[in-house]
User: Fold this.
Amino acid sequence: MDSIKEENIRQLKQLIADSCKIVVAGHTHPDGDALGATAAMALYLQDYAGKDVCCVFSDSPAANLGFILPESVRYHFHDTAPEDTISAINKADLIFLLDCNHFSRTEALEAHLAASKARKVLIDHHLNPDTESFDLVFSTPEISSASELLYWVMRVMGDSSASLGMTIEVGTALLTGMTTDTNNFANSVFPSTFRMASELIASGVDRDALLQKIYNSYRENRVRAMGYMQSEGLTILPEGAAYMVLTKEIQERFDIQDGETEGLVNVPLTIGKVRLSVLAKEDGDHFRISVRSKKGTSAQQLAQRFFHGGGHENASGGKVLIGADVPAPEAVPAYIETILKNFMG
Ligand code: 5GP
Ligand code: MN
Assistant:
């Protein structure tokens, strides 16, 4: 992995050696990559380096991703235990931020993380990292996932020994994160990604077991909701864009829980003429936006210019704010349609 500099690895080893209490943070609404990378980092730091570690997030993970959290790792979620989260951040002498490019992506934790006097390390694969806020930055956009980047950082830290600190548990967390972020090797896959997977499977990580947990453990209602959205809730514009709006009413009707619509936004892209797909999901005072695109159309540009967000070239996210962007939830479909026509036109 050429983008990982020896000098940075030397500095990372020193920062870890000089610290006692370490906090590992990831982005709001943690996905498989954020959970997998932080779990692997925490396991490595506590089991291999012998540090006092905990992971912090602004909100609890979706139930279907709960299997990624190792029992031996301490987690604090700000939505359920704000005092514990803030206390852990305030006591830390080293902070890792994984799978996001800026402390603002941790939402409720941003002010506490940014104000901390701890040394700070960023390990991420998004564009435009906030390098100013960190003592050390590992940022590689040309990679599948934060989990893959962390895998190569750990491999280089282990010098010639591939197994140093890379237990089956660490490897399983990293392979899970990479698998979810690439949608099981469909997007953002590089030669290094296959090498990582090959090495981990050869070392004993059970890929079949993790595929069962990621893709074949959903509840029935999720499949029914996906079917409903594809037949009744999908609008395809002649410009080559598609959108779906998952209102609170539909979520309640199908008893949709957080994480259960994962993958839905990809479905319209299976239609030949669709180059851009948007899913809007009502969430309190805003709609969460997921954007996916085919090569040659930029999901990232759309999310950044119109939805207060960002992400990767072909997979991004953002928000539509009720009040600021639209007067009421009912106005969201027309709002998105106008944006898509303008963007594609
Ligand atoms: P998803 O659609 O799966 O929620 O997110 C896809 C990608 O967009 C992820 O890489 C995620 O980090 C990024 N993303 C999602 N929401 C936001 C957002 O509000 N702001 C930014 N900057 N990136 C986002
Ligand atoms: Mn990621």
Q: What stands out?
A: The mean pLDDT is 96. Residues 27, 31, 290, 309-312, 315-319 surround guanosine-5'-monophosphate (ligand 1) (CB under 6 Å). The longest strand covers residues 276-283.
